[in-house]
Amino acid sequence: MEKTEKKHRYGLLGRDISYSFSKGYFTEFFKKEGLQHCSYENFDLRDITDLETLLKEEENLRGLNVTIPYKQDILPYLHRIDPEAKAIGAVNTIKFTKTELEGYNTDAYGFQESVKPLLERANHTHALILGTGGASLAIAYSLEKMGIAFVKVSRNPKEGQWSYDQLNNEDINKHTLIVNCTPLGTFPRVEDKPLIPYTYLGSGHVLFDLVYNPEKTAFLKAGEGQGATICNGSSMLKFQADKSWEIWQK
Hints:
Elements: E1 8-14, H1 22-33, E2 38-44, H2 51-57, E3 61-66, E4 80-81, H3 83-88, E5 93-96, E6 101-104, H4 107-115, E7 126-130, H5 134-145, E8 149-154, E9 162-163, H6 169-174, E10 177-180, E11 206-209, H7 218-225, E12 229-231, H8 234-248
Parallel strand pairs: 1-2, 1-3, 4-6, 7-8, 7-10, 8-9, 10-11, 11-12
Antiparallel strand pairs: 3-5, 5-6
Helix pairs in contact: 4-5, 4-8
């Protein structure tokens, strides 16, 4: 009898993730590489506690990507966390070994590789991070690593953070890199955008949106209208997806 190769299953863990890029990206990648024994699925969990059931019922899992809102909630379920992911405080990639779940963060790598070509060392020394969720942790870590000072902006600011309504012309002029880490503008609510004073933006600004569906969010359109350089999250996702695959194959 001909021996059949054991199925290797990968997937995305999150909530309300039907819009996600990952499944299509990896399915196409497996097809292109001739990896018929590999598959990629969405695991849409209503609550992180449903993970225990998933792990018991699903077989042949080799790796998972993790997205909103579980990048921090996943931490207690892991046996080992990579030092960089631990420093960031969030995990977006899980590797399954025979006995353990290992956590990694590839968002930081994906962001750095995507944003570096857009930046001018002399001009982009200060950044605003819009949002304070799990995704913002990797962005903050990356900016610190790149030597770029930053302030987080939140609807409910904690100590050291700013609120949206306090942003003025001086703040926007100084912070020439603005990164949207909120889900505002994600399909289908495509008209939503962070409430910053867009009129103060100019050609020296770079607006980076982690959202990639739609391709050009209301946040990016508003920035483009003021002459800013814009970039959505699709390139970041490709970089982080490729890095995830590299981790899974170690």
